[in-house]
Amino acid sequence: MPLFTAFISGLLLSIGIALSGMIDPAKVLGFLNVLGNWDPSLALVMVGALVVYTLGFRLTQHKSTPMFTAKFYLPAHTKIDRPLLLGATLFGIGWGLVGYCPGPAIAAISTGSIGTLGFVLAMISGWFIARHISIK
């Protein structure tokens, strides 16, 4: 059941990302360009995501176990440290430069764009490199 639940969740996320326009780097870059020709439409997507997350979080706060697996998987590290800040900075720079972040990029593979495929390959390479580098 956990694998099926994960698949359905990923499928719903991919459909939502595609319908909202988040797989279109031009739309994302238009949203991030607050000093130029700003496109605020993705702010509604983010507000909607926050509402769904907040409701889900509130509903699960009082449960001892989740519905489809044995335990909750919560972050082990809660400190704001140098690796977190560096990672967040690199993520933001990458998102701002190309208009993709990991989820929408993976969902956009279906478009067959060479640029998207290049981004995903670079992202996967970055994951492998990051696993072998320790930043303290």
Description:
With 136 residues, this protein is mainly α. The chain has one domain. It contains six helices and no strands. The chain has helices at residues 2-20, 25-32, 41-60, 82-98, 102-107, 114-131. The longest helix is centred in the middle third of the chain and has 20 residues, at 41-60. The protein is globular. The model has no long low-confidence stretch (mean pLDDT 88).
Key terms for this structure?
136 residues; mainly alpha
Structure in a nutshell:
The protein has 6 helices and no strands. It is an all-alpha fold and about 140 residues long.
Number of strands: 0
N-end to C-end Cα span: 39 Å
The gross shape turns out to be globular
Along the chain, the helix and strand elements come as HHHHHH
Helix amount: 55-70%
How many H/I helices?
Answer: 6
Mean pLDDT across all amino acids: 88
How much is the radius of gyration in Å? 17 Å
How many domains, in number, for the residues?
1
Tell me the layout of helices and strands.
Blueprint: H1 2-20, H2 25-32, H3 41-60, H4 82-98, H5 102-107, H6 114-131
